[in-house]
Amino acid sequence: MQFQSGWLMAICFQQLLVVDAANFEERCLQFRPQAFVDDSQLTRLEYLTEGTDAVFPENDPSCNSYKQQVKANLCRIGLTIKTSERSEISFELWLPEKWAGKRLLSTGNGGVDGCIIYPDLAYGSSHGFATLGTNNGHNGKSARAMLNNEDVVIDYSYRALHTGTRAGKRLAEAFYGAGPAYSYYSGCSLGGRMGIQAADLYPDDYDGIVAGAPAVDFNLLQGQRAMFFNVTGAAGGGSPDYIETGTWKGLVHDEVLRQCDGLDGVRDGIIEVPSRCRFDPGTLLCAAATRRGTRRGTRRGNRPPSPPPPQSECLNEAQVEQLRSIYAEYRWPNGTLLFPRMNPGNEIAATEGLLAGKPFNYSVEYYRYEVTNDPSWDMSRFSFDVIRRGERTNPGRIRTYPTTLQRFQARGGKAIVYHGGQDQQITSFNSERFYERLAGHQDQEDSSSSSSTSAAAAAVAAMDGWYRFFRIAGMQHCGGGPGAWVFGQGGGVAAVTPSTSSTSETTGDGDDGDGDGGDGFDPATNVLAAAVAWVEGGRAPATILGTKYVNDSVALGVDFQRRHCRYPQAQTYLGGDAKQASSWECR
Ligand SMILES: [Ca+2]
Q1: Homologous superfamily (CATH) for 21-216+399-446+454-472
Q2: Is 189 a catalytic residue?
Q3: What is the predicted pLDDT for the residue at 442?
Q4: What is the whole-number distance in angstroms between the Cα of residue 542 and the centre of ligand 1?
Protein backbone atom coordinates (compact mmCIF):
# COMPACT_ATOMS: atom_id res chain seq x y z
CA MET A 1 0.00 0.00 0.00
CA GLN A 2 1.26 3.44 -0.82
CA PHE A 3 0.86 6.38 1.46
CA GLN A 4 1.06 9.20 -1.04
CA SER A 5 -2.50 10.00 -0.10
CA GLY A 6 -1.54 10.61 3.47
CA TRP A 7 -3.78 13.62 3.71
CA LEU A 8 -6.74 11.42 3.02
CA MET A 9 -5.63 8.63 5.29
CA ALA A 10 -5.38 11.09 8.11
CA ILE A 11 -8.79 12.55 7.42
CA CYS A 12 -10.39 9.18 7.10
CA PHE A 13 -8.98 7.54 10.18
CA GLN A 14 -10.23 10.50 12.12
CA GLN A 15 -13.63 10.49 10.54
CA LEU A 16 -14.34 6.84 9.92
CA LEU A 17 -17.32 6.23 12.10
CA VAL A 18 -17.64 2.63 13.21
CA VAL A 19 -20.23 1.49 15.65
CA ASP A 20 -20.28 -2.10 16.78
CA ALA A 21 -22.81 -4.20 14.92
CA ALA A 22 -25.31 -4.78 17.69
CA ASN A 23 -25.40 -1.11 18.57
CA PHE A 24 -25.74 -0.12 14.97
CA GLU A 25 -28.67 -2.42 14.34
CA GLU A 26 -30.39 -1.21 17.46
CA ARG A 27 -29.76 2.41 16.62
CA CYS A 28 -31.13 1.81 13.12
CA LEU A 29 -34.33 0.19 14.30
CA GLN A 30 -34.95 2.86 16.91
CA PHE A 31 -34.31 5.75 14.55
CA ARG A 32 -37.33 7.89 13.69
CA PRO A 33 -36.38 9.53 10.39
CA GLN A 34 -39.84 10.99 9.86
CA ALA A 35 -39.24 13.18 12.91
CA PHE A 36 -36.41 15.00 11.13
CA VAL A 37 -37.95 15.64 7.71
CA ASP A 38 -40.97 17.88 7.26
CA ASP A 39 -44.05 16.40 5.59
CA SER A 40 -42.59 12.92 5.53
CA GLN A 41 -43.97 9.45 6.19
CA LEU A 42 -41.97 6.36 7.00
CA THR A 43 -42.24 3.59 4.41
CA ARG A 44 -39.24 1.44 5.34
CA LEU A 45 -36.81 1.03 8.20
CA GLU A 46 -34.56 -2.00 8.38
CA TYR A 47 -31.08 -3.16 9.13
CA LEU A 48 -29.48 -5.09 6.27
CA THR A 49 -26.25 -7.04 6.35
CA GLU A 50 -23.74 -7.32 3.55
CA GLY A 51 -24.75 -9.87 0.93
CA THR A 52 -28.46 -9.83 1.69
CA ASP A 53 -31.13 -8.38 -0.57
CA ALA A 54 -32.98 -5.14 -0.16
CA VAL A 55 -36.43 -5.85 -1.58
CA PHE A 56 -38.88 -3.32 -2.96
CA PRO A 57 -41.95 -5.27 -4.12
CA GLU A 58 -43.97 -2.06 -4.43
CA ASN A 59 -41.64 -0.68 -7.11
CA ASP A 60 -43.51 0.25 -10.30
CA PRO A 61 -43.46 -2.77 -12.68
CA SER A 62 -42.06 -0.62 -15.49
CA CYS A 63 -38.91 -0.09 -13.43
CA ASN A 64 -38.41 -3.85 -13.79
CA SER A 65 -36.52 -4.17 -10.52
CA TYR A 66 -37.63 -5.69 -7.23
CA LYS A 67 -34.50 -6.43 -5.23
CA GLN A 68 -30.91 -5.37 -4.89
CA GLN A 69 -28.09 -7.10 -3.09
CA VAL A 70 -26.48 -4.79 -0.56
CA LYS A 71 -22.70 -4.73 -0.31
CA ALA A 72 -22.25 -3.38 3.20
CA ASN A 73 -24.01 -3.53 6.54
CA LEU A 74 -26.41 -0.63 6.52
CA CYS A 75 -29.53 1.00 7.82
CA ARG A 76 -32.13 1.33 5.08
CA ILE A 77 -34.59 4.19 5.36
CA GLY A 78 -37.59 4.79 3.10
CA LEU A 79 -39.75 7.90 3.24
CA THR A 80 -42.28 9.69 1.18
CA ILE A 81 -41.81 13.44 1.34
CA LYS A 82 -44.37 15.95 0.14
CA THR A 83 -42.98 18.56 -2.24
CA SER A 84 -46.21 20.51 -2.78
CA GLU A 85 -49.93 20.11 -2.21
CA ARG A 86 -50.12 17.85 -5.24
CA SER A 87 -46.75 16.14 -5.42
CA GLU A 88 -44.38 14.01 -3.37
CA ILE A 89 -41.25 11.97 -3.73
CA SER A 90 -40.30 8.47 -2.68
CA PHE A 91 -36.94 8.61 -0.99
CA GLU A 92 -34.40 6.00 0.08
CA LEU A 93 -31.32 6.58 2.18
CA TRP A 94 -28.83 3.80 2.87
CA LEU A 95 -26.67 4.57 5.88
CA PRO A 96 -23.64 2.29 6.07
CA GLU A 97 -22.32 1.02 9.35
CA LYS A 98 -18.85 2.14 8.30
CA TRP A 99 -19.37 5.75 7.35
CA ALA A 100 -16.09 6.36 5.54
CA GLY A 101 -15.00 9.97 5.41
CA LYS A 102 -18.44 11.23 6.50
CA ARG A 103 -19.51 11.40 2.88
CA LEU A 104 -22.96 11.74 1.36
CA LEU A 105 -23.76 10.56 -2.16
CA SER A 106 -26.90 11.53 -4.04
CA THR A 107 -27.82 9.48 -7.10
CA GLY A 108 -29.84 10.49 -10.14
CA ASN A 109 -32.43 9.05 -12.50
CA GLY A 110 -32.70 8.30 -16.21
CA GLY A 111 -34.96 8.92 -19.18
CA VAL A 112 -38.37 10.14 -18.07
CA ASP A 113 -38.00 7.93 -15.00
CA GLY A 114 -39.57 7.61 -11.83
CA CYS A 115 -37.23 4.77 -10.83
CA ILE A 116 -34.71 4.79 -8.01
CA ILE A 117 -31.47 3.33 -9.36
CA TYR A 118 -30.87 0.78 -6.62
CA PRO A 119 -27.56 -0.54 -8.01
CA ASP A 120 -26.17 2.97 -7.48
CA LEU A 121 -27.34 2.93 -3.85
CA ALA A 122 -25.57 -0.39 -3.35
CA TYR A 123 -22.46 0.98 -5.05
CA GLY A 124 -22.23 4.17 -3.01
CA SER A 125 -22.93 2.50 0.30
CA SER A 126 -20.37 -0.23 -0.45
CA HIS A 127 -17.72 2.51 -0.40
CA GLY A 128 -18.98 4.00 2.83
CA PHE A 129 -21.11 6.82 1.42
CA ALA A 130 -24.44 7.56 3.04
CA THR A 131 -26.26 7.13 -0.26
CA LEU A 132 -29.66 8.37 -1.33
CA GLY A 133 -31.96 8.21 -4.30
CA THR A 134 -35.49 9.34 -5.11
CA ASN A 135 -38.15 8.36 -7.60
CA ASN A 136 -37.78 11.88 -9.04
CA GLY A 137 -41.37 12.73 -8.17
CA HIS A 138 -43.33 10.02 -9.96
CA ASN A 139 -43.34 6.26 -10.28
CA GLY A 140 -42.34 4.24 -13.29
CA LYS A 141 -41.02 4.89 -16.75
CA SER A 142 -43.84 7.04 -18.08
CA ALA A 143 -44.20 10.79 -17.67
CA ARG A 144 -48.01 10.47 -17.50
CA ALA A 145 -48.06 11.77 -13.92
CA MET A 146 -46.84 15.14 -15.23
CA LEU A 147 -50.03 15.73 -17.21
CA ASN A 148 -51.45 19.08 -16.13
CA ASN A 149 -49.36 18.98 -12.97
CA GLU A 150 -46.43 21.37 -13.13
CA ASP A 151 -45.40 20.35 -9.62
CA VAL A 152 -44.57 16.84 -10.82
CA VAL A 153 -42.59 18.38 -13.68
CA ILE A 154 -40.69 20.59 -11.23
CA ASP A 155 -39.88 17.57 -9.07
CA TYR A 156 -38.61 15.75 -12.15
CA SER A 157 -36.55 18.75 -13.23
CA TYR A 158 -34.76 19.57 -9.97
CA ARG A 159 -36.89 19.59 -6.83
CA ALA A 160 -36.97 15.86 -6.08
CA LEU A 161 -33.18 15.72 -6.03
CA HIS A 162 -32.79 18.88 -3.97
CA THR A 163 -35.45 17.75 -1.50
CA GLY A 164 -33.87 14.32 -1.19
CA THR A 165 -30.40 15.77 -0.73
CA ARG A 166 -31.55 18.14 1.98
CA ALA A 167 -33.31 15.28 3.77
CA GLY A 168 -30.25 13.03 3.37
CA LYS A 169 -27.96 15.60 4.98
CA ARG A 170 -30.34 16.17 7.85
CA LEU A 171 -30.86 12.46 8.48
CA ALA A 172 -27.16 11.63 8.31
CA GLU A 173 -26.54 14.28 10.93
CA ALA A 174 -29.34 12.99 13.15
CA PHE A 175 -28.31 9.37 12.78
CA TYR A 176 -24.53 9.57 13.01
CA GLY A 177 -24.41 12.58 15.29
CA ALA A 178 -22.52 14.72 12.78
CA GLY A 179 -23.46 16.11 9.39
CA PRO A 180 -21.70 15.00 6.21
CA ALA A 181 -18.25 16.50 5.80
CA TYR A 182 -18.54 16.22 2.01
CA SER A 183 -21.43 15.78 -0.37
CA TYR A 184 -21.28 14.25 -3.82
CA TYR A 185 -23.59 13.61 -6.71
CA SER A 186 -23.39 10.96 -9.40
CA GLY A 187 -25.79 10.41 -12.28
CA CYS A 188 -25.90 9.80 -16.01
CA SER A 189 -28.12 10.88 -18.91
CA LEU A 190 -31.12 12.61 -17.33
CA GLY A 191 -29.08 12.12 -14.16
CA GLY A 192 -26.14 13.95 -15.72
CA ARG A 193 -28.46 16.84 -16.43
CA MET A 194 -29.68 16.73 -12.83
CA GLY A 195 -26.11 17.19 -11.63
CA ILE A 196 -25.55 20.23 -13.86
CA GLN A 197 -28.93 21.67 -12.86
CA ALA A 198 -28.04 21.23 -9.19
CA ALA A 199 -24.74 23.06 -9.69
CA ASP A 200 -26.71 25.88 -11.30
CA LEU A 201 -29.70 26.18 -8.96
CA TYR A 202 -28.32 24.84 -5.66
CA PRO A 203 -24.56 25.31 -5.81
CA ASP A 204 -24.15 24.47 -2.11
CA ASP A 205 -25.75 21.04 -2.39
CA TYR A 206 -22.61 19.23 -3.56
CA ASP A 207 -18.86 19.60 -3.24
CA GLY A 208 -18.29 17.19 -6.11
CA ILE A 209 -20.50 16.31 -9.07
CA VAL A 210 -19.98 13.41 -11.47
CA ALA A 211 -22.26 14.01 -14.45
CA GLY A 212 -22.39 11.50 -17.31
CA ALA A 213 -23.81 12.09 -20.80
CA PRO A 214 -25.73 15.07 -19.41
CA ALA A 215 -29.04 15.75 -21.14
CA VAL A 216 -28.35 19.48 -21.16
CA ASP A 217 -30.20 21.81 -23.52
CA PHE A 218 -32.97 19.37 -22.71
CA ASN A 219 -35.84 20.86 -24.71
CA LEU A 220 -33.91 20.91 -27.97
CA LEU A 221 -32.47 17.48 -27.23
CA GLN A 222 -36.02 16.10 -27.17
CA GLY A 223 -36.73 17.75 -30.50
CA GLN A 224 -33.57 16.34 -32.03
CA ARG A 225 -34.30 12.84 -30.80
CA ALA A 226 -37.87 13.00 -32.08
CA MET A 227 -36.60 14.03 -35.51
CA PHE A 228 -34.92 10.69 -36.34
CA PHE A 229 -38.20 8.85 -36.78
CA ASN A 230 -39.42 11.35 -39.33
CA VAL A 231 -36.21 10.86 -41.31
CA THR A 232 -35.98 7.07 -41.11
CA GLY A 233 -39.69 6.43 -41.59
CA ALA A 234 -41.49 3.55 -39.96
CA ALA A 235 -40.22 0.02 -39.68
CA GLY A 236 -42.29 -2.94 -40.81
CA GLY A 237 -43.07 -1.86 -44.36
CA GLY A 238 -44.38 1.54 -43.36
CA SER A 239 -41.84 3.36 -45.48
CA PRO A 240 -40.42 2.18 -48.85
CA ASP A 241 -36.95 3.56 -48.15
CA TYR A 242 -36.73 2.42 -44.54
CA ILE A 243 -33.25 1.12 -43.76
CA GLU A 244 -33.54 -2.22 -42.04
CA THR A 245 -31.93 -2.90 -38.69
CA GLY A 246 -29.63 -5.49 -40.23
CA THR A 247 -28.43 -2.92 -42.78
CA TRP A 248 -27.66 -0.41 -40.03
CA LYS A 249 -25.72 -2.96 -38.04
CA GLY A 250 -23.95 -4.38 -41.05
CA LEU A 251 -23.51 -2.26 -44.18
CA VAL A 252 -23.77 1.18 -42.56
CA HIS A 253 -21.86 0.51 -39.33
CA ASP A 254 -19.12 -1.29 -41.27
CA GLU A 255 -18.75 1.63 -43.66
CA VAL A 256 -18.61 4.16 -40.79
CA LEU A 257 -15.82 2.11 -39.25
CA ARG A 258 -14.08 1.69 -42.61
CA GLN A 259 -13.98 5.46 -42.96
CA CYS A 260 -13.30 6.43 -39.33
CA ASP A 261 -11.98 3.62 -37.12
CA GLY A 262 -8.48 3.83 -38.54
CA LEU A 263 -8.19 7.62 -38.21
CA ASP A 264 -6.70 7.06 -34.75
CA GLY A 265 -4.18 4.54 -36.08
CA VAL A 266 -5.80 1.39 -34.69
CA ARG A 267 -8.68 -0.59 -36.18
CA ASP A 268 -10.43 -1.83 -33.05
CA GLY A 269 -14.04 -0.73 -33.50
CA ILE A 270 -13.36 2.39 -31.41
CA ILE A 271 -13.48 5.86 -32.94
CA GLU A 272 -11.17 7.55 -30.45
CA VAL A 273 -11.87 11.15 -31.48
CA PRO A 274 -15.40 11.30 -32.92
CA SER A 275 -15.07 14.95 -33.95
CA ARG A 276 -12.53 13.84 -36.57
CA CYS A 277 -15.05 11.47 -38.15
CA ARG A 278 -17.15 13.00 -40.94
CA PHE A 279 -18.93 9.99 -42.34
CA ASP A 280 -19.70 10.22 -46.08
CA PRO A 281 -22.62 7.89 -46.88
CA GLY A 282 -22.21 8.57 -50.63
CA THR A 283 -19.94 5.53 -50.90
CA LEU A 284 -22.95 3.31 -50.19
CA LEU A 285 -24.97 4.46 -53.19
CA CYS A 286 -25.81 1.72 -55.65
CA ALA A 287 -24.73 4.11 -58.40
CA ALA A 288 -22.82 1.74 -60.60
CA ALA A 289 -25.33 -1.05 -60.25
CA THR A 290 -28.29 1.24 -60.97
CA ARG A 291 -26.68 2.76 -64.06
CA ARG A 292 -25.80 -0.66 -65.41
CA GLY A 293 -29.34 -1.85 -64.88
CA THR A 294 -30.82 1.19 -66.63
CA ARG A 295 -28.47 0.93 -69.63
CA ARG A 296 -29.15 -2.74 -70.09
CA GLY A 297 -32.87 -2.19 -69.88
CA THR A 298 -32.75 0.60 -72.49
CA ARG A 299 -30.40 -1.07 -74.94
CA ARG A 300 -32.03 -4.44 -74.96
CA GLY A 301 -35.51 -3.03 -74.92
CA ASN A 302 -37.53 -6.18 -74.45
CA ARG A 303 -35.60 -7.45 -71.46
CA PRO A 304 -36.77 -6.14 -68.05
CA PRO A 305 -34.19 -4.12 -66.09
CA SER A 306 -32.21 -5.98 -63.42
CA PRO A 307 -33.78 -5.88 -59.97
CA PRO A 308 -32.13 -3.40 -57.63
CA PRO A 309 -29.34 -4.90 -55.53
CA PRO A 310 -30.28 -5.86 -51.96
CA GLN A 311 -30.02 -3.32 -49.15
CA SER A 312 -27.32 -5.39 -47.53
CA GLU A 313 -25.00 -4.42 -50.43
CA CYS A 314 -25.83 -0.79 -51.22
CA LEU A 315 -28.49 1.91 -50.84
CA ASN A 316 -30.66 3.94 -53.18
CA GLU A 317 -30.46 7.71 -53.46
CA ALA A 318 -33.31 8.34 -51.04
CA GLN A 319 -31.63 6.16 -48.45
CA VAL A 320 -28.28 7.87 -48.88
CA GLU A 321 -30.02 11.23 -48.46
CA GLN A 322 -31.60 9.84 -45.31
CA LEU A 323 -28.15 9.01 -43.98
CA ARG A 324 -26.89 12.49 -44.83
CA SER A 325 -29.69 13.97 -42.70
CA ILE A 326 -29.14 11.56 -39.84
CA TYR A 327 -25.40 12.21 -39.57
CA ALA A 328 -25.64 15.97 -40.13
CA GLU A 329 -26.09 18.71 -37.57
CA TYR A 330 -29.78 19.32 -36.95
CA ARG A 331 -30.66 22.83 -38.11
CA TRP A 332 -33.56 25.21 -37.83
CA PRO A 333 -35.17 26.21 -41.14
CA ASN A 334 -33.02 29.37 -41.18
CA GLY A 335 -29.86 27.26 -41.03
CA THR A 336 -28.82 27.95 -37.45
CA LEU A 337 -27.86 25.01 -35.28
CA LEU A 338 -30.67 23.30 -33.41
CA PHE A 339 -28.60 20.42 -32.03
CA PRO A 340 -25.20 18.83 -32.77
CA ARG A 341 -24.85 15.78 -34.98
CA MET A 342 -25.26 12.18 -33.88
CA ASN A 343 -22.19 10.16 -32.90
CA PRO A 344 -21.00 8.11 -35.88
CA GLY A 345 -20.28 4.52 -34.88
CA ASN A 346 -23.26 4.23 -32.53
CA GLU A 347 -25.40 2.37 -35.09
CA ILE A 348 -25.59 -1.06 -33.49
CA ALA A 349 -27.05 0.26 -30.24
CA ALA A 350 -28.98 3.09 -31.93
CA THR A 351 -31.16 0.58 -33.79
CA GLU A 352 -32.78 -0.05 -30.40
CA GLY A 353 -33.88 3.58 -30.11
CA LEU A 354 -33.23 6.55 -32.37
CA LEU A 355 -32.92 4.40 -35.50
CA ALA A 356 -35.58 1.81 -34.62
CA GLY A 357 -38.15 3.14 -37.07
CA LYS A 358 -40.46 3.92 -34.16
CA PRO A 359 -41.33 7.22 -32.46
CA PHE A 360 -38.70 7.89 -29.79
CA ASN A 361 -40.56 7.23 -26.58
CA TYR A 362 -38.88 9.81 -24.32
CA SER A 363 -39.57 12.58 -26.81
CA VAL A 364 -43.19 11.55 -27.28
CA GLU A 365 -43.72 11.48 -23.50
CA TYR A 366 -42.08 14.88 -23.19
CA TYR A 367 -44.32 16.48 -25.82
CA ARG A 368 -47.44 14.80 -24.47
CA TYR A 369 -47.10 15.35 -20.76
CA GLU A 370 -44.71 18.25 -20.34
CA VAL A 371 -45.19 20.50 -23.36
CA THR A 372 -48.68 20.13 -24.86
CA ASN A 373 -50.52 18.46 -21.94
CA ASP A 374 -52.28 16.43 -24.60
CA PRO A 375 -52.10 12.64 -24.17
CA SER A 376 -53.20 12.16 -27.77
CA TRP A 377 -50.19 14.02 -29.17
CA ASP A 378 -48.26 11.87 -31.61
CA MET A 379 -45.43 12.20 -34.11
CA SER A 380 -47.76 13.22 -36.94
CA ARG A 381 -47.87 16.59 -35.14
CA PHE A 382 -44.12 16.90 -34.74
CA SER A 383 -42.69 20.06 -36.31
CA PHE A 384 -40.26 22.89 -35.66
CA ASP A 385 -43.23 24.66 -34.07
CA VAL A 386 -43.59 22.12 -31.29
CA ILE A 387 -39.83 22.17 -30.70
CA ARG A 388 -40.06 25.97 -30.34
CA ARG A 389 -42.99 25.56 -28.00
CA GLY A 390 -40.99 23.24 -25.76
CA GLU A 391 -38.08 25.65 -25.72
CA ARG A 392 -40.37 28.61 -25.00
CA THR A 393 -42.41 27.00 -22.24
CA ASN A 394 -39.36 25.26 -20.74
CA PRO A 395 -41.45 23.01 -18.47
CA GLY A 396 -40.24 22.96 -14.89
CA ARG A 397 -37.17 24.99 -15.96
CA ILE A 398 -35.79 21.77 -17.36
CA ARG A 399 -33.73 23.33 -20.16
CA THR A 400 -30.46 23.13 -18.18
CA TYR A 401 -28.18 25.06 -20.48
CA PRO A 402 -26.48 27.69 -18.35
CA THR A 403 -23.71 29.86 -19.75
CA THR A 404 -21.90 29.75 -16.43
CA LEU A 405 -21.92 27.82 -13.17
CA GLN A 406 -20.19 30.69 -11.45
CA ARG A 407 -21.68 30.17 -7.98
CA PHE A 408 -20.72 26.49 -7.93
CA GLN A 409 -17.25 27.31 -9.19
CA ALA A 410 -16.81 30.17 -6.69
CA ARG A 411 -17.65 28.05 -3.65
CA GLY A 412 -15.02 25.50 -4.67
CA GLY A 413 -17.28 22.90 -6.27
CA LYS A 414 -15.70 20.37 -8.63
CA ALA A 415 -17.44 18.82 -11.63
CA ILE A 416 -16.34 15.76 -13.59
CA VAL A 417 -18.31 15.23 -16.78
CA TYR A 418 -17.94 12.19 -19.02
CA HIS A 419 -19.60 11.16 -22.26
CA GLY A 420 -19.27 8.08 -24.47
CA GLY A 421 -17.98 8.70 -27.99
CA GLN A 422 -20.39 6.18 -29.52
CA ASP A 423 -23.43 7.22 -27.50
CA GLN A 424 -26.68 6.10 -29.10
CA GLN A 425 -29.02 8.30 -27.04
CA ILE A 426 -27.39 11.70 -26.50
CA THR A 427 -24.63 12.84 -28.79
CA SER A 428 -21.30 13.47 -27.09
CA PHE A 429 -20.86 16.53 -29.32
CA ASN A 430 -23.43 18.18 -27.06
CA SER A 431 -21.07 17.82 -24.11
CA GLU A 432 -18.23 19.32 -26.15
CA ARG A 433 -20.50 22.23 -27.06
CA PHE A 434 -21.51 22.70 -23.42
CA TYR A 435 -17.87 22.72 -22.33
CA GLU A 436 -17.11 25.42 -24.90
CA ARG A 437 -20.14 27.38 -23.73
CA LEU A 438 -18.91 27.37 -20.13
CA ALA A 439 -15.29 28.00 -21.17
CA GLY A 440 -16.37 30.99 -23.23
CA HIS A 441 -17.74 32.61 -20.12
CA GLN A 442 -14.70 32.09 -17.95
CA ASP A 443 -13.27 35.24 -16.48
CA GLN A 444 -9.94 35.70 -18.24
CA GLU A 445 -7.26 36.77 -15.81
CA ASP A 446 -5.19 38.09 -18.67
CA SER A 447 -7.75 40.27 -20.39
CA SER A 448 -5.00 42.14 -22.26
CA SER A 449 -4.22 39.03 -24.29
CA SER A 450 -4.63 39.77 -27.95
CA SER A 451 -4.09 36.22 -29.11
CA SER A 452 -7.19 34.11 -29.40
CA THR A 453 -5.05 31.01 -28.96
CA SER A 454 -3.74 32.13 -25.61
CA ALA A 455 -7.23 33.24 -24.62
CA ALA A 456 -8.51 29.76 -25.43
CA ALA A 457 -5.64 28.20 -23.47
CA ALA A 458 -6.44 30.47 -20.53
CA ALA A 459 -10.08 29.46 -20.70
CA VAL A 460 -9.14 25.77 -20.65
CA ALA A 461 -6.77 26.36 -17.73
CA ALA A 462 -9.56 28.12 -15.86
CA MET A 463 -11.97 25.28 -16.61
CA ASP A 464 -9.41 22.73 -15.43
CA GLY A 465 -9.65 24.26 -11.99
CA TRP A 466 -13.23 23.18 -11.46
CA TYR A 467 -14.80 21.44 -14.49
CA ARG A 468 -13.18 18.57 -16.33
CA PHE A 469 -14.78 16.77 -19.25
CA PHE A 470 -13.61 13.29 -20.25
CA ARG A 471 -14.42 11.83 -23.64
CA ILE A 472 -14.89 8.09 -23.18
CA ALA A 473 -13.91 6.59 -26.52
CA GLY A 474 -15.98 3.63 -27.65
CA MET A 475 -18.58 3.93 -24.91
CA GLN A 476 -22.28 3.86 -25.61
CA HIS A 477 -24.87 5.67 -23.49
CA CYS A 478 -23.51 5.74 -19.91
CA GLY A 479 -21.89 2.32 -20.33
CA GLY A 480 -21.31 -0.56 -22.72
CA GLY A 481 -19.63 -0.58 -26.12
CA PRO A 482 -16.24 -1.59 -27.51
CA GLY A 483 -14.25 0.93 -25.44
CA ALA A 484 -12.79 0.78 -21.94
CA TRP A 485 -16.08 1.84 -20.42
CA VAL A 486 -15.79 0.66 -16.80
CA PHE A 487 -14.62 3.48 -14.56
CA GLY A 488 -16.91 3.58 -11.54
CA GLN A 489 -19.62 5.73 -13.11
CA GLY A 490 -22.41 3.71 -11.51
CA GLY A 491 -23.48 0.41 -10.03
CA GLY A 492 -23.28 -3.01 -11.66
CA VAL A 493 -20.27 -3.88 -13.82
CA ALA A 494 -19.30 -0.19 -14.04
CA ALA A 495 -18.62 -0.25 -10.31
CA VAL A 496 -16.02 -3.00 -10.53
CA THR A 497 -12.91 -0.90 -11.03
CA PRO A 498 -9.53 -2.50 -10.50
CA SER A 499 -6.94 -0.76 -8.38
CA THR A 500 -3.95 0.50 -10.35
CA SER A 501 -1.76 -1.50 -8.00
CA SER A 502 -3.49 -4.68 -9.16
CA THR A 503 -2.80 -4.04 -12.83
CA SER A 504 0.31 -3.56 -14.92
CA GLU A 505 -0.40 0.14 -15.08
CA THR A 506 1.08 2.14 -12.26
CA THR A 507 0.52 5.84 -12.12
CA GLY A 508 1.61 6.40 -8.57
CA ASP A 509 -1.88 7.13 -7.41
CA GLY A 510 -2.06 3.99 -5.34
CA ASP A 511 -4.71 3.58 -2.75
CA ASP A 512 -7.03 6.48 -2.24
CA GLY A 513 -6.86 5.96 1.49
CA ASP A 514 -10.54 5.64 2.13
CA GLY A 515 -9.73 3.09 4.77
CA ASP A 516 -10.80 0.04 2.83
CA GLY A 517 -7.92 -0.21 0.37
CA GLY A 518 -7.70 -2.85 -2.29
CA ASP A 519 -11.37 -2.55 -3.22
CA GLY A 520 -10.69 -0.75 -6.46
CA PHE A 521 -11.89 2.61 -5.20
CA ASP A 522 -8.88 4.26 -6.73
CA PRO A 523 -8.86 7.80 -8.20
CA ALA A 524 -6.89 6.57 -11.22
CA THR A 525 -9.51 4.04 -12.31
CA ASN A 526 -12.69 5.20 -10.57
CA VAL A 527 -14.36 8.49 -11.38
CA LEU A 528 -16.19 8.73 -8.06
CA ALA A 529 -12.93 8.18 -6.18
CA ALA A 530 -11.40 10.78 -8.48
CA ALA A 531 -14.06 13.28 -7.42
CA VAL A 532 -13.29 12.52 -3.76
CA ALA A 533 -9.55 12.99 -4.30
CA TRP A 534 -10.17 16.28 -6.11
CA VAL A 535 -12.60 17.70 -3.56
CA GLU A 536 -10.89 16.51 -0.40
CA GLY A 537 -7.27 16.43 -1.48
CA GLY A 538 -7.02 18.96 -4.29
CA ARG A 539 -5.77 16.29 -6.68
CA ALA A 540 -7.58 16.88 -9.96
CA PRO A 541 -7.85 13.95 -12.36
CA ALA A 542 -5.59 14.32 -15.40
CA THR A 543 -6.97 11.22 -17.07
CA ILE A 544 -9.30 8.38 -16.16
CA LEU A 545 -8.06 4.87 -16.77
CA GLY A 546 -11.01 2.90 -18.13
CA THR A 547 -11.26 -0.86 -18.09
CA LYS A 548 -12.78 -3.22 -20.64
CA TYR A 549 -13.56 -6.70 -19.37
CA VAL A 550 -13.59 -9.66 -21.76
CA ASN A 551 -17.14 -9.77 -23.13
CA ASP A 552 -17.98 -7.23 -20.40
CA SER A 553 -17.79 -10.04 -17.87
CA VAL A 554 -15.78 -9.32 -14.73
CA ALA A 555 -15.32 -13.06 -14.21
CA LEU A 556 -13.50 -13.36 -17.55
CA GLY A 557 -10.94 -10.76 -16.52
CA VAL A 558 -9.58 -7.53 -17.99
CA ASP A 559 -9.37 -7.37 -21.78
CA PHE A 560 -7.61 -3.99 -21.90
CA GLN A 561 -7.38 -0.58 -20.26
CA ARG A 562 -7.09 2.85 -21.83
CA ARG A 563 -6.71 6.31 -20.41
CA HIS A 564 -9.53 8.64 -21.28
CA CYS A 565 -8.43 12.18 -22.03
CA ARG A 566 -9.81 15.35 -20.63
CA TYR A 567 -11.16 17.72 -23.20
CA PRO A 568 -9.80 19.31 -25.33
CA GLN A 569 -6.93 16.82 -25.27
CA ALA A 570 -7.34 13.96 -27.72
CA GLN A 571 -6.31 10.33 -27.64
CA THR A 572 -3.11 9.73 -29.63
CA TYR A 573 -1.66 6.36 -30.59
CA LEU A 574 2.08 6.14 -30.01
CA GLY A 575 2.59 2.64 -31.43
CA GLY A 576 3.01 -0.83 -29.99
CA ASP A 577 0.36 -3.07 -28.47
CA ALA A 578 -2.86 -1.07 -28.70
CA LYS A 579 -4.27 -2.92 -25.69
CA GLN A 580 -1.60 -1.42 -23.47
CA ALA A 581 -2.62 1.91 -22.01
CA SER A 582 1.02 3.03 -22.37
CA SER A 583 0.70 2.79 -26.16
CA TRP A 584 -1.52 5.85 -26.10
CA GLU A 585 -1.13 9.42 -24.93
CA CYS A 586 -3.45 12.35 -24.37
CA ARG A 587 -2.32 15.39 -26.35
CA1 LIG B 1 -9.83 2.95 -33.68
Answers
A1: Alpha/Beta hydrolase fold, catalytic domain (3.40.50.1820)
A2: yes
A3: 79
A4: 22
